[in-house]
Write a structure and sequence with these properties.
metal-binding; transferase; EC 2.7.7.24; glucose-1-phosphate thymidylyltransferase activity
């Protein structure tokens, strides 16, 4: 399986913060935002990752993450010149995906919780599509999934005025290779975007969509507004200071997953010692 991080868009809901800097490069407490979805994909066992961003931001992402060799991974980059919808990621990434299965995660989504790694690895070989439902207070902002009395998904609606449930679809999706042809076949929405909801609907109509409800012990944070951006930073700060463990630490994930060895981790840690981040990595070795 390969992975895609969609880190494009204008970030206009966060202007003026994002007028000069990509939202996904902004800090969530002690790390750039993109570290969190990147760590999630790496935790899933995915080591080949395509980062899709804007022409202006591409050099900055390359400066931050390079080609991924330092983490035992392989990163490639592609451009989404205009925000034409999440599903366009599969068209942009068609050559990168090849004949593989693929996971898509949004660059501004953070996942954390007990059992998350096991859950992600269970979806490594999807037959069809696998998405999640997450109970939220304000489902109007999201794609919403409706279940029947047996717990089977029966409908998906993007940003409904009258939501049929409180279960939003978080920004991580697992698909088989058919997703590329499905993305190429869907029509742009009224917003002139290729909607990920339409991809999920296509899988649902084929009887190939699995929707699982995320456990209460797993947190999903969306950082698309000023308040949610601040809440995400506060959440990470509280957990890290209380537990002494980091969230979204890509170097730690690479080490614990066996992508890099002790000497490689040490080489990553040494330039970061002054910030305390490197000291945390050195303690992993000890």
């Amino acid at each position: 399986m390969k992975g895609i991080i969609l880190a494009g868009g204008t970030g206009s809901r966060l202007w003026p913060l994002t007028k000069a800097l990509s939202k996904q490069l902004m800090p969530i407490y002690d790390k750039p935002m993109i570290y969190y979805p990147l760590a999630t994909l790496m935790m899933s066992g995915i080591r080949e990752i395509l980062i899709i961003t804007t022409p202006e931001d591409l050099p900055l992402f390359k400066k931050l993450l390079s080609n991924g060799n330092q983490l035992g991974c392989r990163f490639e980059y592609a451009i989404q010149s205009e925000p034409k919808g999440l599903a366009e990621a599969f068209i942009i990434g068609k050559k990168f995906i090849g004949n593989s299965r693929v996971a898509l995660i949004l660059g501004d989504n953070i996942f954390y919780g007990n059992g998350l790694e096991q859950l992600l690895k269970e979806n490594y070989k999807p037959k069809g599509g696998i998405i999640y439902g997450y109970h939220v207070n304000n489902p109007k902002r999201y794609g919403v999934v409706e279940f029947d009395e047996t717990g089977k998904a029966i409908s998906i609606v993007e940003k409904p005025e009258m939501p049929k449930s409180n279960f939003a679809i978080p920004g991580i999706y697992f698909y088989d290779n058919e997703v590329v042809s499905i993305a190429e076949s869907i029509k742009p929405s009224k917003r002139n975007e290729l909607e990920i909801t339409d991809v999920n609907k296509a899988y649902l109509e084929l009887g190939k969509l699995q929707v699982s409800v995320l456990d209460k012990g797993i947190a999903w944070l969306d950082t698309g507004t000023f308040s949610s951006l601040m809440q995400a930073s506060q959440f990470v700060q509280v957990i890290e200071e209380r537990q002494g463990l980091k969230i979204g630490c890509i170097e730690e994930v690479a080490f614990t997953q066996g992508y890099i060895d002790t000497e490689q981790l040490k080489a990553l840690a040494e330039p970061l010692l002054k910030s305390g981040y490197g000291e945390y990595l050195m303690n992993l070795i000890k």
